[in-house]
Write a structure and sequence with these properties.
alpha/beta, 8-stranded parallel beta sheet, 11 helices, 13 strands, binds N-carbamoyl-L-aspartate, binds zinc ion
Length: 343
């Protein structure tokens, strides 16, 4: 097959940032996705409906010329106001809530420190059928960085499923076979997004001939056995698994540094990367489920009516996306070619 036509995909996990970076990166997402779940980990984070309305307007201003709907998220803190949150959800301002365990990843310092503090908010969300999105890592210094997803599942996620019995949760950027298994074991209550980098690379990519900061993201790339489990899950067509790029732009000089930022800017190459995986797995017939059907189904949202065609036709990915007066951002596969293009 050298061509595939499907309902227009959505990106269920993306960082569009703010200011000049937003202006430089948003078009890449808006060009090929109909909707995207926009992460709230700005500095300071998006924690109220009012802030989300203002941020959404800045995103919309950055994507003029595209038919693209940003779906906003609220950054859960120990002090989240359930009334503001649920009113924002009912008004169509918020689509979901994002839980960052404090200090787990980029701009997560304001994240949740104790579930007792947010129990009421989580119950209100369950009552109103609002999804909780989690960064699934337990950021304890004594836990090996490669084991933090499993620790999160055992110590936080499984107890949380019991604590708030009807809450639906998305494990964002799942990276291990443990994550895949737990999603399968809780059909309907748990979903998971999977990134292109976790499908294409294992942790060797971080050390290939030297330290490779552009492959560094959180959760960090894992062993090959986990990558293979993710590929099986993504290409299975099972409703629990859907597309979420976790495109996370950082300026080049902040990644190529003594203490480099976590995040892979994959938006310019994400769809081509996913298509390569589905082609390699002989599963292009399952791509629409992963990219365009399973996500809306889990969120209880309508699917997109528009159709798009992807062709097996090489596409050059630029080496650096300029950001006015600040530098540039190096995309995944930047300076090279990918095999698939949008028609
Ligand atoms: C993300 C970022 O840069 O905002 N980084 C990353 O490595 N994935 C944060 C996140 O999604 O955890
Ligand atoms: Zn995350
Ligand atoms: Zn992310």
């Amino acid at each position: 097959m050298t061509e595939i036509t499907i309902r227009k995909p959505d990106d269920w996990h993306v960082h569009l940032r703010d200011g000049e970076v937003l202006k430089s990166v948003a078009g890449f997402t808006a060009a090929c996705f109909a909707r995207a779940i926009v992460m709230p980990n700005l500095a300071p984070p998006v924690t109220t409906a009012r802030e989300a309305v203002a941020y959404r307007a800045r995103v919309e201003a950055a994507v003029t010329g595209h038919t693209f709907t940003p779906l906003m998220t609220c950054y859960l803190t120990d002090n989240t106001d359930a009334k503001d949150l649920i009113a924002g959800f009912k008004d169509g301002i918020f689509t979901a809530v994002k839980l960052y365990p404090a200090h787990a990843t980029t701009n997560s310092a304001a994240g949740v420190t104790s579930f007792d503090k947010v129990q009421g908010v989580l119950e209100a969300m369950a009552e109103n059928d609002m999804r909780l999105l989690v960064h699934g890592e337990l950021p304890k210094a004594e836990i090996d960085v490669f084991d933090r997803e499993k620790a999160f599942i055992d110590e936080i996620l499984l107890p949380l499923l019991d604590r708030v019995p009807s809450l639906k949760i998305v494990m964002e950027h799942v990276t291990t076979s443990h994550g895949v298994d737990v999603v399968r074991a809780h059909k309907g209550r748990l979903g998971a997004t999977i990134t292109p980098q976790h499908l294409l690379f294992n942790r060797n990519a971080l050390f290939n001939g030297g330290l490779r900061p552009h492959f560094y993201c959180l959760p960090v790339l894992k062993r090959e056995e986990h990558r293979l489990a993710l590929r099986k899950a993504a290409t299975s067509g099972e409703p629990g698994f859907f597309l979420g790029t976790d495109s996370a732009p950082h300026l080049r000089h902040l990644k190529e540094a003594a203490c480099g930022c976590a995040g892979v800017f994959n938006a310019p190459a994400a769809l081509a990367a996913y298509l390569r995986v589905f082609e390699e797995e002989n599963a292009l017939d399952k791509f629409e489920a992963f990219a365009s059907l399973n996500g809306p189904e889990f969120y209880g949202l309508p699917v997109n009516e528009e159709r798009v065609t992807f062709r097996k036709k090489p596409q050059f990915i630029c080496d650096g996306v300029p950001v006015d007066k600040m530098g540039e951002i190096h995309p995944m596969f930047g300076g090279g070619e990918v095999d698939w293009s949008m028609a």
